[in-house]
Amino acid sequence: PQNTSLNVNSEENEEERCLELGGHVGFDSLPDQLVSKSVTQGFCFNILCVGETGIGKSTLMNTLFNTLFEAEEASHYQNGVYLRPRTYDLKESNVQLKLTVVDTVGFGDQINKEESFKPIVDYIDTQFETYLQEEMKIKRSLFDYHDTRIHICLYFIAPTGHSLKSLDLVTMKKLDSKVNIIPIIAKADTISKSELHKFKIKIMSELVSNGVQIHQFPTEDEAVTEINSSMNAHLPFAVVGSVEEVEVGNKMVKARLYPWGTVQVENESHCDFVKLREMLLRVNMEDLREQTHARHYELYRRCKLEEMGFTDTDPDNKPFSLQETYEAKRKEFLGDLQHNEDDMRQMFVNKVKETEAELKVKERELHERFEQLKRMHQEEKRNLEEKRSDLEEDMNDFNRRKVAAETLMGQSLQGSSQPFRKDKKK
C-alpha cells in the first residue's frame, strides 16, 4: 500500500487516491498564509492608456483611483509617438499597490500614422525582455523585482458614432497577442443613447470581422461567472471621467456640469464607468495579472527561446536537456566564430596580396619613370657636353684669331714708324 501511494503520478497514470484525515492537520490555513504574505509583499498593477491626445486618458485615471496623478499637458505637435510611464505607491486599508500608468504621448497626431503602433509594441516587448533576462539570471531576485509588464491596455475610442478608424484597428490587431485589451468609448456624454448603442454594436462587429481579440472576462469561476458574463456583453464600455464634485440633491457626486444638465460619473444610467471600475479593479485585477504572465508573457518567452534554439524535445522525441542544448549551441557558436575568424584571416591575406600587387605595379611604374628621367638626364648632359665642347673650340678659335690680329697689328705699327724716323732725320 505504501508503494502504491508513492506511485500515483507514475507513467502508468494511476488514479489519485482520496484519503480522509483522522483529525485536524492545519494546512487549511494555507490560504490565510498566502493572503498575509501577499499583503506584506504588496501588489503591482500596470495600465497602458492608448488614445489620441486630449481624449481624456489622464482624467479617467484620476477618476478610477479617486486621486490626482501628476500629468503634463501634451501638445498636438509631437514628431512621433513616445511612451511616458509614471509609477505611484498607493495604499487602501492595509493593501499597498505599486501602480504604473503608461501614457502614449503624441498617438494619432502625425499626418503619417503608419508606424504609430510600433513604439507601443516595442515598449511592451521591452518589458517582457527585461523580465525574461531577470528570470534567466543565475542569481535571481524575482521576489522584490518591480514587474513592469503591462497587465491591461485601455484603448480609448473617439466618440464619432460612425465606425473605428483604421489606426484603431491596426493598433489593436498588433497588440491583441501581447496585452489584454479593453476598448472603451471616451467622452460618451457627447453622443445620444441610441447612437451609443448602435456605435457599440458597430465597434464589436468591426473587431470580430478584422480578427481583433479583445479581453474577455473569465467565466470559469462560479463566484464571478454571472457578473463577468453580463459585463462581457456590455463591451466596449462607454465612460465619462471627472474629478469635480457637483451637488445633486442633498449629496456631492462626481459629475460633469453642462448648461442642459448634469452627467453623473457613477450613475450607471449615464455611463459605464462603474462597470469598468468593477471589472478592472474590484473583480478581475488578479486575473489580468495572471493572464499577462500565463498567456502573453509565456507566448513571448516561448518564441524567444525557440529563436535561441531551445525546444521541449530533441529530434528523437526525448526529453529536452538544457546542458546538451547549451553545449550544442556553444559548439555551434564557437564553430561560427572560428569560421568567421578564418574568413577574416583569409580576407586579410587577400587584401595584403592585393596591396602587395598594387605596390609592385606602382614600384615598376616608378622604376620605369626613373629610368626614363635618367635617360633624359643623360641625353641632356650629353647635349650640354657637346655644346660645351663646341663653345670651347669657338673660344680657342677666337683666341687664335685674336692673337693673330694683335700680331698683325703690331707688325703694321712697327712698319709705319720707320719712315717717320727717316723724315725726322732729314
Automatic annotation (TrEMBL):
Compositionally biased tracts (Polar residues): 409-419
Presence of keyword Nucleotide-binding: yes
Question: Is-annotated flag, keyword GTP-binding?
Answer: yes
* One Gene Ontology molecular-function label: GTP binding
Q: Which Pfam families match?
A: Septin
Q: Which InterPro entries match?
A: G_SEPTIN_dom (IPR030379), P-loop_NTPase (IPR027417), Septin (IPR016491)
Q: Which domain of life is it from?
A: Eukaryota
SUPFAM superfamilies per the record? P-loop containing nucleoside triphosphate hydrolases
Coiled-coil portions: none
Sorted alphabetically, the keyword list is:
GTP-binding, Nucleotide-binding
Please state every residue range assigned to the domain named Septin-type G: 41-307
Compositional bias of kind Basic and acidic residues: 377-390
**Region of interest (Disordered), ranges:** 377-398, 407-426
What is the similarity comment for this entry? Belongs to the TRAFAC class TrmE-Era-EngA-EngB-Septin-like GTPase superfamily. Septin GTPase family.
The record's annotation in PANTHER family points to: SEPTIN
Q: What is this protein called?
A: Septin
- Species whose genome carries this gene: Oncorhynchus tshawytscha
